[in-house]
Amino acid sequence: MSAPRVYIYDTTLRDGAQTSGVDFGPADKDAIARELDALGVDYIEGGWPGANPTDDSFFDNLPPVSRARITAFGMTRRAGRSADNDPGLNALLSTDARVVCMVGKTWDYHVDVALGIERTENIAMIKDSIAYAVTRVDEVLFDAEHFFDGYKANPEFAMSCLKAAIDGGARWVVLCDTNGGTMPFEIDDIVTQVCKTIPGDKIGIHCHDDTGNAVANSLSAVRAGARMVQGTINGLGERCGNANLVSVIPSLMLKMGYDTNVGEAGLKRLRHVSNGLDERLNRAPDRHRPYVGESAFAHKGGLHVSAVEKDPRCYEHVPPASVGNHRQILISDQAGRSNILARFREIGIDIDDKDPRIMTLLDKVKEKEKQGFSYDGAGASFELLARRILGDVPDYFHCSSFRVIDERRWNAKDERVTLSEATVKLALHGDAANAKDGAQRMAVAEGNGPVNALDAAMRKVLLPLYPTLKDLRLVDYKVRILTPGDATAAVTRVMIESTDASGRTWATVGVSANVIDASYNALRDSIVFKLLQDGVAAA
Asked: Could you say which EC number(s) this protein's record lists (predicted)?
């Protein structure tokens, strides 16, 4: 017997656009729609035709999709108008989208106060609009706005609105927890009651996350009989967001045994889709996002690592690869021998587990973390530390000295100018103290900040010898104050994330009471790691 089917309706392009700080352009909407189609969602809600130029552009040039159905969103007819004579409704039905979703009131309070119309007219608006729409498009959904508040206040009226939609020909009636205030046990009770009147294969659920329960509420609704879930990628949405489909989809498939159009192959794309959306929005992905976050399968405590190495089920609720993720063994002052060995296997270091250098490295890690270093998110710096203890890192260069000058002035146009200048002296081989004449190179460079200037000066020296550094790019730079009580004399930790043309990314760390010194340490590790990964020999 096949597993029950649940349909996935994505509202990222409409609800997601209501997120504070999010602004989709036409190219964004087109690209996101293509990714959602490749993922395997059943419906992609493209926006509200006529609401703004971006949505109009999207519906004027619908992206080609092969698996999903693009949906246009709008309202039922207005009070006092016939459906065929309502401009808004006809605009909704005039796009090339063959599916439409209409929103209407189902809470008597809203009908009485917000609309100020008779309740019978509200019911007629729902039925008339849907009956007219089914003659113009292939499929119609009804979004029952504030349904759960309405049902708790007046279940008879709320149900009469749903029945009107079904009688009008709606394929789905979607129960909306519009203000996000309903609890999972209430969702379960109410959806169970609704399914006694309307078949579950016609019922959808649309939850907001104002109590942090949108995912739980969506899963509760499915368990109670609903067969469609609406939500957004990464939980984007107004206020606290919508149900996060990145959590909903794998929970339905891997935990509850339901079938979706996403399938096993699509599930393995989940992390890619989640991170890709963050990248498009210029946001750092949430490392702790369930299923797909960088730390979702990261193990730090020594006992945990020992257990997960023997049986992953001890601390991994699903195989990381099933959702496109991977296991990480973190190195920290909580690490034990098992962490070190597991991390060695991960980065390809073959070593006898009784090698005394393992304990040397473990002690060194704990000593460094006491100073403020953190290797949790700086795997490249840890790998260099380990390989240096094992003697596996070539002596690419040694910094004899560097100096950074910041200048702030006003030019002849009375414009403020801020400029950084860095001078570096690098020994290209051996110990700088014993370096022969000509072994040291000096370079000077300017930049829009001290780290940029330092980076530019080092590249002037290193690029002629190590051309592989040409595609090295710094993509993120973070500073954390470790001793805030010391005010401006505080110890700082700098984390740098780097990438290159191959698409690899790696993170490095530096710590010092001087932020420029800390930055240099992280920058140096980034350059050395790049050279090591590219298999470059020391000049």
From this structure: 2.3.3.21
- Which part of the chain is CATH 3.20.20.70? 7-280
282 CA to centre of own chain: 10
* 265 burial type by CB count under 10 A (0-12 exposed, 13-18 middle, 19+ buried): exposed
Cα 278 to chain center, whole Å? 5
7, β-bridge pairs:
228
C-beta separation of 159 from 197 below 8 A: yes
pLDDT tens column, 261-272:
999 999 999 988
Q: Both tokens of residue 359?
A: 């304990």
Is CATH 3.40.50.300 the right assignment for the domain spanning 372-395+470-539? no
- CA–CA separation, 208 vs 241, rounded Å? 6
Tokens of 51: 């609401």
Closest CA to 494 of 370, 373, 367, 331: 373
- For residue 443, give the nearest of 431, 433, 456, 434 by alpha carbon: 456
CA distances from 80 to 83, 117, 121, 142 (A): 10, 10, 9, 20
Residue the block writes with tokens 């997960």: 308
Distance CA 95, CA 91 (A): 7
Exposure class string for 87-122: b at 16+ Cβ within 10 A, else e = ebbbbbbebebebbbbbbbbbbebbeeebebebeeb
Q: What is the pLDDT of residues 348-365, one digit of tens each?
A: 888 887 888 888 888 888
